[in-house]
UniProtKB/TrEMBL annotation:
This is Putative aarF domain-containing protein kinase 5. The keyword Repeat does not apply. SUPFAM superfamilies: Protein kinase-like (PK-like). Coiled coil: none annotated. InterPro entries: ABC1_dom, ADCK1_dom, Kinase-like_dom_sf, Mito_struct-func_regulator. Keywords: Kinase, Transferase. It comes from Temnothorax longispinosus. Residues 151-391 form the ABC1 atypical kinase-like domain.
Length: 543
C-alpha cells in the first residue's frame, strides 16, 4: 500500500539520540504522528486538485449547450472584472495624472488604448461597443477616435464547427442538407457574426451570415458589465452619458430576423430609385441567428480605385448616396443607422452607371412624423440662413443653442456658407469646437429626441465617406432640397399642400441661385483685378 510506503519513508528519516536503537514500541510510537501528519498533508494537498479534476470530468460530460452556459458564466465574471479594472484605472488616471504633470492628450491616449485592449480581450459585444463609440467621433477627443478606429476591422476568433452546430440548433439540419455548397472559411467577419459564401439547392449564390454561437448566452451578463464600464466613463465626464443609446442598439443588432425585415422595408421605401439595391432575403434559410441573403459582387464605397476601375463617376456615386440617405431621413423616417463603408457597396447598374447597394440592416431608427417635419424645416432654414426660424425649430427639438445644433448636424461651422467651403479649415475648426463645447454637445444629445442620436450618426458616417472622395459635391444643398420636399410629404396630401410644396421648392432654388451669384461676383472681380496687374493681397488687407 502507498500509505505503508509513505510511513516507512517518514520513519526512516527520524533522527535518534545516542547510538542505542529504540525498541519496536518506541519506533511505532514515533512513526504514528508522522504517519498521520503525512496523510493529512497529502489530503490537504490533493483535495483542491481533486475537486478541480472532478469539475473537469463533470464539465467534459456535459452536452455542448450546457458547456457554453458554464463558459459564459465564468467568462462573464472574467470580463466584468476586467472591465471594472479598466474603468477604475481610467477614472483614477484622469483624476491623478494632471497633478503629476501629464497632458490631457496623453491621458486621452492611454485611456483610449485601455478601452481598445479591453474590448479586444473581451470580444463580442464589447467590440461592437467600441465601434459604437468610434461612430460618435464628432464629440470624442481625437486620441479616442484614432485608437477606437482599430476596432472597425477586429472580430472574434471562432471554432470551425460552430456553423454546423448553430444550423443544427436553429434548423435541426446540417448546412450540407440545406445548401448545395458552402465555403468552409468565412469571407468576412465582424464583431457579431461571420459571413460565408454558399450556393442554394436551386443554384443561387448567397451570403450566409452566422452569429457567433455564444453571443445570446453572454449578452445579459456582458450587458451589465458594459453598463458599469460606461458609468465609469461618466464619472470622468458626467454629461457623457451615452449608455442610454448604445444599449438599445446592441439589442437590435442581435436579432437577424429583425434585420431581414428592416432590409425589406428599406427596399420598399427606396423602390422608386432604380440605382438603389437591397439584397434579397432567403427566409427559408434564415433565423434569429442566421441570415441568408443574395450574394453581392461590388466594391466598398471608399474603394476609389475600384469604383474608377468599373468606369463609374465618383460624383455620381456621392450624389446618389446622399439622395438615398436624405430620402430616409427627411421622407420615410426609417433610417439606416450604420452606413459605414463596409455596409455600402458600389457596382455597375443596368444603365452602366453607379448602383448603390445597402447592406447590414440590423440597426435602424424610426423617426417620428413630428421630428421628421421639424428636421426638414430646420435643415431648410439652416441653408437659407433664416435664424429666427432656425431657433424655433431647434427649440422644437429640445435644443436652445440653434447654432450648436446646426454644427452638430452638418459638422461644419454655421458662420461659413454651406454652398462654398474649404474642408481643411473646417475640420480644424470643428475639432476645436467639439473640445470647447463637449459638455454642451453631450447635453444637447441627451435632450433632443432619442431618434436624433442615430440620425446624427448616419449623417456623420456619410459625411466621412464624401470627405474620403474629396468633397466633390455640396451635400448641404442636396440634403436641403430633399428636406424642402419632405416638409410637405404627409399621409393625406391635398391640392393646397402640393401647390405650397412646389412654391417652397421654387423659392428655395431662387434663394440658392442668388446666394451662389453673390459668391461668384466677388470671385470674378478679384480674378479680373489680378489679370490687370493689381496686388490682390493688398486689396484684401484693406477690406
Amino acid at each position: 500500500m502507498w500509505t505503508d510506503w509513505l510511513a516507512l519513508t517518514f520513519t526512516s528519516g527520524v533522527v535518534v539520540k545516542d547510538e542505542v536503537q529504540p525498541s519496536s514500541t518506541t519506533r511505532f510510537t514515533t512513526a504514528v504522528p508522522l504517519y498521520n501528519h503525512a496523510v493529512q498533508h497529502s489530503y490537504n494537498y490533493l483535495r483542491p486538485r481533486l475537486r478541480v479534476a472532478l469539475l473537469g470530468v463533470n464539465y467534459s460530460l456535459l452536452p455542448s449547450r450546457r458547456k457554453r452556459n458554464v463558459k459564459s458564466v465564468v467568462g462573464s465574471l472574467i470580463r466584468f472584472t476586467r472591465s471594472m479594472r479598466i474603468g477604475i484605472t481610467i477614472s483614477m488616471d484622469y483624476l491623478i495624472a494632471p497633478v503629476l504633470g501629464y497632458t490631457e492628450s496623453e491621458i486621452h491616449r492611454r485611456s483610449a488604448d485601455r478601452i481598445v485592449q479591453g474590448c479586444l480581450q473581451n470580444g463580442g459585444i464589447y467590440i461592437k461597443l467600441g465601434q459604437g463609440l468610434a461612430a460618435v467621433n464628432h464629440i470624442l477627443p481625437r486620441e479616442y477616435v484614432e485608437s477606437l478606429s482599430i476596432l472597425q476591422d477586429k472580430c472574434l476568433i471562432r471554432e470551425k464547427d460552430e456553423m454546423e452546430e448553430i444550423f443544427l440548433q436553429d434548423f435541426g439540419k446540417k448546412p450540407g442538407e440545406m445548401l448545395r455548397k458552402i465555403e468552409p472559411e468565412p469571407v468576412a467577419a465582424a464583431s457579431l457574426a461571420q459571413v460565408y459564401k454558399g450556393t442554394t439547392l436551386d443554384g443561387d449564390t448567397v451570403a450566409i451570415k452566422v452569429q457567433y454561437i455564444d453571443l445570446q448566452d453572454r449578452f445579459i451578463s456582458d450587458l451589465k458589465a458594459i453598463v458599469h464600464l460606461l458609468k465609469a466613463i461618466t464619472v470622468v465626464h458626467p454629461k457623457f452619458d451615452l449608455h442610454w443609446e448604445m444599449i438599445d442598439t446592441l439589442r437590435m443588432e442581435l436579432d437577424f430576423e429583425n434585420e431581414g425585415k428592416n432590409g425589406e422595408q428599406c427596399a420598399k421605401d427606396l423602390k422608386r430609385f432604380e440605382y438603389a439595391y437591397i439584397p434579397k432575403i432567403y427566409w427559408d434559410l434564415s433565423s434569429k441567428r442566421i441570415l441568408t441573403t443574395e450574394w453581392i459582387d461590388g466594391v466598398k464605397v471608399t474603394d476609389v480605385e475600384g469604383i474608377k476601375a468599373q468606369g463609374l463617376d465618383l460624383k455620381d456615386v456621392d450624389n446618389k448616396l446622399i439622395t438615398l440617405m436624405g430620402e430616409q431621413i427627411f421622407h420615410t423616417g426609417f433610417v439606416h443607422a450604420d452606413p459605414h463603408p463596409g455596409n455600402v457597396f458600389v457596382r455597375k447598374g443596368k444603365d452602366k452607371k453607379a448602383q448603390i447597394v445597402l447592406l447590414d440592416h440590423g440597426l435602424y431608427e424610426h423617426v417620428s412624423e413630428k421630428t421628421r417635419q421639424t428636421l426638414c424645416n430646420f435643415w431648410e432654414s439652416m441653408v437659407l440662413r433664416n435664424d429666427s426660424s432656425l431657433k424655433t425649430f431647434a427649440q422644437d427639438l429640445n435644443v436652445e443653442d440653434y447654432i450648436l445644433l446646426a454644427e452638430m448636424l452638418t459638422q461644419a461651422p454655421y458662420t461659413v456658407s454651406f454652398t462654398s467651403y474649404s474642408n481643411n479649415t473646417l475640420d480644424e475648426y470643428m475639432k476645436k469646437r467639439a473640445q470647447e463645447q463637449f459638455d454642451k454637445i453631450t447635453a444637447a444629445l441627451k435632450a433632443m429626441p432619442k431618434s436624433m442620436m442615430l440620425v446624427i450618426r448616419n449623417l456623420n458616417m456619410v459625411r466621412a465617406i464624401i470627405k474620403d472622395h474629396g468633397d466633390i459635391i455640396n451635400r448641404y444643398r442636396i440634403m436641403a432640397r430633399i428636406a424642402t420636399r419632405g416638409k410637405y410629404q404627409v399621409t393625406k396630401q391635398t391640392f393646397y399642400k402640393n401647390i405650397k410644396g412646389i412654391y417652397s421648392i421654387v423659392k428655395f432654388e431662387i434663394r440658392i441661385f442668388c446666394n451662389n451669384l453673390l459668391q461668384w461676383i466677388p470671385k470674378v472681380y478679384l480674378t479680373l483685378l489680378k489679370l490687370f496687374g493689381y496686388d490682390i493681397a493688398s486689396i484684401l488687407q484693406t477690406l
